[in-house]
């Protein structure tokens, strides 16, 4: 196996990771929809099992990628006269990483953690037995209208995204435009929420706020 073959394999593995991430996003959305639609708890639990399966695949891919990258770096660093069997070396590293696996690894998967957090919040909103109670819960959230106002546009948000670093929420298009504008100037973006000290907002730190989006949609229907 050659360096070019490994580079090609790594590229394919990273594409697979992207597909896994997309699958986890879909599974999260389905689970939230199930809770909102008052589906059986067993259906929601089945989506959590799907998320754990995805997390397992993601961990395995991470180990493969890391094993091959470490192998390449090791060979380039040591510069042996005869090129060793790169596949065997990578396989050894991979198996060593796999031997240290634990269930806690899966619990720490970023997408899985987000899934659990969103599910917990959604159950608080929609876990009651009557629509009247749901309306009351939404009304409680609605009392703080400032939660709905984007700190950039000063308008009610339509597609809220939460910053994983500082926890503040913005209108998706507005914050992405700000990031792009500052990037062109080769400058960092400070969180536009007044009083926030976070001074390096990145697009990769933004995640959709499913709970707030549903509350906003509920308000719009009323």
TrEMBL record:
Domain of life: Eukaryota
Segments forming domain SP-RING-type: 134-221
Official protein name in the record: E3 SUMO-protein ligase NSE2
BP-aspect Gene Ontology terms: double-strand break repair via homologous recombination; protein sumoylation
Family that this chain belongs to: Belongs to the NSE2 family.
GO cellular component: a single term: nucleus
Keywords: Ligase, Metal-binding, Nucleus, Transferase, Ubl conjugation pathway, Zinc, Zinc-finger
Chief location category: nucleus
Pathway: Protein modification; protein sumoylation
InterPro entries tied to this protein: Nse2(Mms21), Znf_MIZ, Znf_RING/FYVE/PHD
Subcellular location: Nucleus
Keyword DNA-binding recorded: no
PROSITE patterns, alphabetized: ZF_SP_RING
GO molecular function, one term: SUMO ligase activity
Gene3D superfamilies linked: Zinc/RING finger domain, C3HC4 (zinc finger) (3.30.40.10)
């Amino acid at each position: 196996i050659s360096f070019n073959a490994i580079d090609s394999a790594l590229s394919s593995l990273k594409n697979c990771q992207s597909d896994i991430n997309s699958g986890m996003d879909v599974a999260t959305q389905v689970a939230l929809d199930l809770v909102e639609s008052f589906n059986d708890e067993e259906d929601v639990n089945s989506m959590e099992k799907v998320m754990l399966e995805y997390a397992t695949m993601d961990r395995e891919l991470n180990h493969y990628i890391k094993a091959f990258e470490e192998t390449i770096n090791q060979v380039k660093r040591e510069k042996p006269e005869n090129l060793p069997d790169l596949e065997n070396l990578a396989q050894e590293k991979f198996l060593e990483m796999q031997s240290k696996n634990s269930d806690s690894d899966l619990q720490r998967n970023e997408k899985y953690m987000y899934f659990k957090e969103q599910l917990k919040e959604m159950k608080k909103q929609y876990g009651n037995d009557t629509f009247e109670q749901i309306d009351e819960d939404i009304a409680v959230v609605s009392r703080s209208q400032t939660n709905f106002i984007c700190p950039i546009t000063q308008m009610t948000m339509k597609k809220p995204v939460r910053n994983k670093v500082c926890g503040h929420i913005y209108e998706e298009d507005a914050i992405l435009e700000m990031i792009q504008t500052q990037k062109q100037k080769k400058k960092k973006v400070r969180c536009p929420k007044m009083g926030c000290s976070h001074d390096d907002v990145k697009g990769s730190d933004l995640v959709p706020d499913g709970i707030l989006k549903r509350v906003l949609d509920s308000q719009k229907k009323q």
